[in-house]
Structure formats: C-alpha cells, structure tokens
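Structure ticket #2291
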Amino acid sequence: DSYLYTWKSMEACASEGLVKSIGLSNFNSIQIQEVIDVSSEKYKPAVLQIESHPYLTQKKLIEFCKKNNIVVTAYSPLGSPDRPWAKESDPSL
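Resolution: structure written out below.
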C-alpha cells in the first residue's frame, strides 16, 4: 500500500533530522500493524490522531494503541454535530 511507502519516506526524513517523530491519522488497527511491521526498530508510530468522543469511543483501537505504546489524540472530542448517525434526541455536548 502507498502509506507503507510514505512511512518509509517519513523514516528517511527522521533519519535526516527533518522531523522528531512520526505519527498516523485515521488508521485502523490493521493498517497500524502493517506500519509497525515495516517500521525500523528506531522509528515506530508515536501518535495516532482519530475522531473520538462519547458517541464514537473507539475503545478497541485505543487499547490497541496503548498496547503498542502509541499515544492517541482525538479530534472532535465533544462530537461532530454533523455526524450521520446523530439523532435529534441526542444531548448537545
């Protein structure tokens, strides 16, 4: 997959001192494992940015990240008002 090639390119940037660490965004556990499998020992994913909030907790993915020492950062932590599964009865956060 192209993201594996991109990962290797980012490792090269880290080796040259152009970046301090490398992260991922919106990857699932299978994709993250693929990246871990091709990562050099020196450079593993440092962070995963995902949508996570009370309506989309992503518990399994967050546990996977914890197990692999990957920090999780969330966007839309209070929920996206335009999420397709929103119900009018949902409380406003």
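Closing remark: The first strand starts at residue 23 and ends at 25.
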